[in-house]
Amino acid sequence: MERTLLTLYCALCLVHLAFCLPFRWGRRKFCQDLTKALLMPALLAAVLAGGEAGLLVPAALLFGWAGDVLLLWPDRKPCFLAGLVSFLVGHGCYIPALLAGVKISAPRGILEAALLALLGAAAYASLRRHLPGEMKLPVAAYLLTILGMAWAAVMRGEALLIAGAGAFVLSDYILARSLFVKRHGWTDAAVMLPYLAAQLCLAGGLAGLLAI
């Protein structure tokens, strides 16, 4: 059953990405929003059918779904902030799931944290002057959280999970550039492609549905 549901998720991803492309489709925006709202429920169903997810991975997907829906209206500040918080909590759920049973070497953990901190500082520096004053702290907090999730994936050391965390960081950076710097016609597809891959790698990897 979980394989069928994973196939459904992948099919929905392809349909959604098609509607993200900047072509003049009839009712394109409606179809794009509808398929976006169905993506995480499909992946959640696959994870639950697998029976090995525990509570944290389904919670991460539920908060991801809430963020997806709320960010259908990014121009509405309450929706944007609530979406930001939803994704932040979702990353917060992934962190302990990734670190479960992991023995961390202090020197390696500090080195990897320092490297990710440099990456985060560079990303924030490229955004900072474009951020409204009231968004500087929320964006910094979100950046620290997603880098914490990436650090947890690196500490776990599984290629699939590291790839998923990296794809999440890439997706969120592209999204931030589109919201605060400049939006392009290809932005939706560029954001959603790594995001959908990230959720699949993280949730599928932690739930034992995928392996490399």
Task: Explain what this protein looks like in three dimensions.
The chain is mainly alpha-helical. The chain is 78% helix and 0% strand. The chain is globular, with a radius of gyration of 17 Å. The mean pLDDT is 91.
Keyword list:
212 residues; 78% helix
The secondary structure category is mainly alpha
Total strands = 0
The whole-number mean of residue pLDDT values reads 91
Helix/strand order, N-terminal first: HHHHHHHH
C-alpha geometry: globular
**Largest beta-sheet characterization:** none
User: How many distinct helices?
Assistant: 8
User: Which regions have little confidence, pLDDT < 50, spanning 5+ residues?
Assistant: none
Span between termini:
21 Å
Question: How much helicity do the residues have?
Answer: over 70%
Q: Which percent band covers the strand fraction? A: under 5%
As a whole number of angstroms, the C-alpha radius of gyration is 17 Å
